[in-house]
Amino acid sequence: MDDIWIPLGESLLISRFVPLWNKWVDGFGNHDPGGGRYNQERSRWDVLHPGRPWATKCKERKEALAQIETDVAARLRDMYD
Length: 81
What we know:
The protein is mainly α and 81 residues long. It contains four helices and no strands. The chain is flat, with a radius of gyration of 15 Å. The N and C termini lie far apart (35 Å). The relative contact order is 0.14.
């Protein structure tokens, strides 16, 4: 496939299937924001999937892990009911 079509295909798949990590669990594709932006909250993705060393430098989220897990479970139920 010619590279020019990749963004279109990706956009169509995202709009059709609405993956959790594109709408409800922010931070999937994040990279180290750098020292000037560590005051921002840690992403939901990094709370659910700890392991990126730079993410621990970001501020803790106001919502707890259990709340994020509850939200994800609710979204999954909504998607498949």
